[in-house]
Amino acid sequence: MIKSVSRINNEIPITRLLSSKELLADTCNHCVPVLDVLNDPFDLLEVLMVMPYLRPFDDLEFQTIGEVVDFVSQTLEGLYFIHRQGVTQRDCAAANIMMDSGPLFPPGHHPVQLDYTPDGVSYTSCFMRNQRPVRYYFIDFGLSSYFKPGEVLLAIGTKGRDKEPPERSDTRPYNPFPLDIFILGNVYLKDLCKDMTGWTFSSL
């Protein structure tokens, strides 16, 4: 996939940092890797960021508790990794969490008509996540901030998909690290718990 990004946005340097060879080797890294950054031939103020094709994490329903637990574990691991690099995502809402669905669709699927084969002719079938586990990724670091060691952990800004965090402000600085935790917690509350009515954990 190719995304057009402003040259003056923080997204390019932060995403490149998280996509460095050293950090990509860390299995805790759940940030979408940048494959290349190209000059936009039509707009000198934009660049084209090339990334792997990913699918929304909730495009396929979770079928088991184990699948949900794996999603929560991976996203918590990924957010902790991001924070350890001095980066706050600041927009880790559901729309910015994706999955590599390759294991579920060995022949692939159409990038627009997701229920169809790559040629768009016929319906495709898929495995369950508990049969072939997937990996989850955070995308879109356009609102993210990077803090050098020892730097004051404060930011301003109200932009973001989740409008509920109380600390967001354009005038009063706030710590953006707890903000990430609030937003991800809202993903679990609103995008997972609402679909789990009647689910129970079996005793071991």
TrEMBL record:
SUPFAM superfamilies: Protein kinase-like (PK-like) (SSF56112)
Gene3D superfamilies: Transferase(Phosphotransferase) domain 1
Protein kinase domain span: 1-204
InterPro entries linked: Kinase-like_dom_sf (IPR011009), Prot_kinase_dom (IPR000719)
Domain of life: Eukaryota
Transmembrane regions listed in the UniProt entry: none
Protein's recorded name: Protein kinase domain-containing protein
